[in-house]
């Protein structure tokens, strides 16, 4: 699915240069469920942003479906992103002014799909994540778990082949967290590649493989026994 | 710790000042937009204010000015375009003074003449005011040399102003020195200076720097000046008695007009029986106007002949005052919109101040202080801008305008007052809005305390701003279009390649002059006429259609026709082809109007050419029917002429299209020639001008030359309208710039607030263009609504404006104008919002998504 080769990323803030990713190399196969772990500030989110093409590396190569996207411009990246990648965030990032259905539809809005088909797909995915009865509500009227389910629905409604989840359970209590993890697992079973950043060793257990990051470097990779 | 109360106040004030200043610096973009916008608004106001101050306060410079009035006249005859003028006839003054002796204390006539002053071998054009001796009772002029008692007592006493004394003599003590004027009663006269007066102020309608005590005898040869009822050639002033009002005099004059004046008989002689239910005052207008109203209001009475000095235009002034106020209003709206939009950013400050004990009043005052400070900074920029622009502005308006704040405390006070008013006006809503925050809500909430109400208000204000802009664009386009239309209209004749030479003072040398001029290689033709196009003397007489010898009926009543005197070759020179019959031709030998040698009842014969309007007036549906018919008219006192119609020519626009075409008649009458129309070819214009001047100096040595290009005279008719168009364009542009500034600020702010949403959309696959479209569309809706609102208002206003033009743009012009105005506003709005939207849309969404 994707390969990172000697990827480096640094941030310049005033006088200090911070190296967020230092020579990161690994690959992820199609259909894998990978967890990325590590202490705060180790570069997890930066790594996820680069994988999700929201950010570009300073050096190194990034092959996504056999294309080196490291040097692509914003528009090219946006086109690949919207076709293949869905995002789930810790703070859900739903738009308060839009309803649940409209938030989910947003992911299809930029795909050139007819309105009828969009409505159809949105309805299907809402059924799937069990949020159909809340279609007309605003995000602020939902519980955290429900909001994250909306976010999951939004991430998969376009049939994306990979989901990037940035601490998807970080803002949820344990039962809701469990619920979301089960949902991700089910998606993985259906063939969706999932890359998840998490602090929770418990939720990392859902992944087939865990990549441990420290100070911008890959320290260990554990593969869970099948 | 506890200082004196004043000290505390000062500390507080200093603290507010510091907070205000830091806020100003911190929010550079918003402060910049506000200061720039307000500066443009204030600049427009100051420019208009200077113009208004210059235009108002006319003719209040002398004692008793409020009691001085002028008599204006008008002939509004049935089936004719009205003839209005600020002049009156020579006999009205004495008659009205005698009849309205309870109201009128004194009356005086002014006969204004363009003469020349001869000093040695030099000749200077000089306007001369021939006035009745009572003129100085009405206009008390200040004497530098001589005195009221001694210097203006006898006919032909002459007063000159200080400037004129210095011009002709280089000093002011010139009583007893002589000036030779040319010509009075066709002869040069040498008159001694009997007194020197102070220069008249700039703000007077009088054009008087040389006055001569009028000796009525000198006009004996021109009875139409002083001895006529129907020829309107003098300016008549009255001074009212203490306690008498303008209305009383007007009423008295109307009574005289209907019951005592000779106009009823004149009407019957020229037009026929007065229809029942009509009074003579329905047709002959005598209007009394206070002199202090003349400059701004006499335009309505002035017709096509104007006044002693160029008149102001009250409607134009009101229009521009409104426009300036609108620009300032747009700038104030910017301030309100940006201040309330940014309110949430300052909510914490307000809450903390309240927690620490500030009252709502104190906080409101703090914000008001900030807005006044901002306006005062803007005022400084505005004043600097006015200084830079003033020379060009003065030139455009043709006025001497000055900005002298220190020497003009009332102006300074007005401007400071304006600044405080604007500051408070723009600041009051944000101040109340911001000071109303509840501390508990603000401090515990993580989001801004924005209500949806203030957001809607902002959109409403943006709609209002852009609606104003749309109206101004429509107005500009229509004024411009009408000006183009006026200047490009087919007047019906050729006016290029023509010079107009005034030959009024060369009457006895016309043949010699023509001979010399026609010798010039570039001159094709020289034709004498009474009037050149653009000149308008309103010469009217009654012409009666007689029955024909073969039994066709005549008309019982005479028709009032405007008449021109032209030489052979006139129609040829102007390329006007007759639609029936022929033009004047020496081969016939019978075309000329000849003044009978002997007084008597003998009937003289001559030829006439009429225009199509006149032919219709005589009932000829086909111009051919008019040919050969006879008109009866009295051209000289007690003499009858029978004129055979030899040709009918098309209606041509001889004067500005602001005025309609009159039924007119052309006669070949040599004693009325005032102009040489010189038709030239070739391109060496400077040489031609030089040669014409040389010939003039040789043939008419003692007269200054008045030589003009006809094309320039034609353009000058629309100069004022062109100025209006330019001013409108400039102020509309300013209004749009200010409105766009506000839109830019608001768009920038909104985009800032929507950063997270934009981030989400980008993650969902939105491209930069999608985001830009989203943000631009958000502001397109209010602008489109503004366009829909602006259209009807603009159309209504400008249709009203166009009513004043007998020949005007067709109504369908409003369609492209409105479309253009709409597109322009929309494009400008897109451009304004789009630039910032692109910047925001390009930002990496990562940062906005991680944290709230």
Characterise the protein shown here.
- The complex is a heterodimer of chains A (226) and B (852).
- Chain A is α/β, with parallel strands linked by helices and 226 residues long.
- Chain A has helices at 44-51, 74-84, 100-109, 115-129, 144-156, 174-189, 201-204; strands at residues 2-13, 16-28, 33-37, 59-64, 67-68, 85-89, 162-166, 193-197, 209-214, 217-223.
- In chain A, the strands form two sheets. Chain A has a six-stranded mixed sheet with strand order 6-7-8-3-9-10, sandwiched between helices.
- The mean pLDDT of chain A is 88.
- With 852 residues, chain B is α+β, with helices and mostly antiparallel strands.
- Chain B contains 28 helices and 23 strands.
- Chain B has a six-stranded mixed barrel. In chain B, strands 15-16-21-18-20-19 form a six-stranded mixed beta barrel.
- Chain B starts with a helix and ends with a helix.
- The relative contact order of chain B is 0.11.
- The mean pLDDT of chain B is 88.
- Chains A and B meet through α2 and α3 of A and α25 and α28 of B.
Number of strands of chain B: 23
Total beta-strand segments of chain A: 10
Give the strand line-up of the largest sheet of chain A: 6-7-8-3-9-10
Major β-sheet profile of chain B: 6 strands, mixed, barrel
| CA distance, first residue to last residue of chain B | 42 Å
Q: Provide the CATH topology of chain A.
A: Rossmann fold
> Percent of residues of chain A in helical segments?
25-40%
Report the order of strands and helices of chain A. Answer: EEEHEEHEHHHEHEHEE
How far is the N terminus from the C terminus of chain A?
20 Å
- Which stretches of chain B are poorly predicted, pLDDT < 50 over at least 5 residues? none
Pick out the low-confidence regions of chain A: none
> Strand pairing plus helix content of chain A: what structural class?
alpha/beta
CATH superfamily of chain A: P-loop containing nucleotide triphosphate hydrolases
| Oligomeric category | heterodimer
Q: Do you know the CATH architecture of chain A? A: 3-Layer(aba) Sandwich
Number of helices of chain B: 28
Helix- and strand-based class of chain B? alpha+beta
Inertia-based shape of chain B: elongated
The total tally of domains of chain A equals: 1
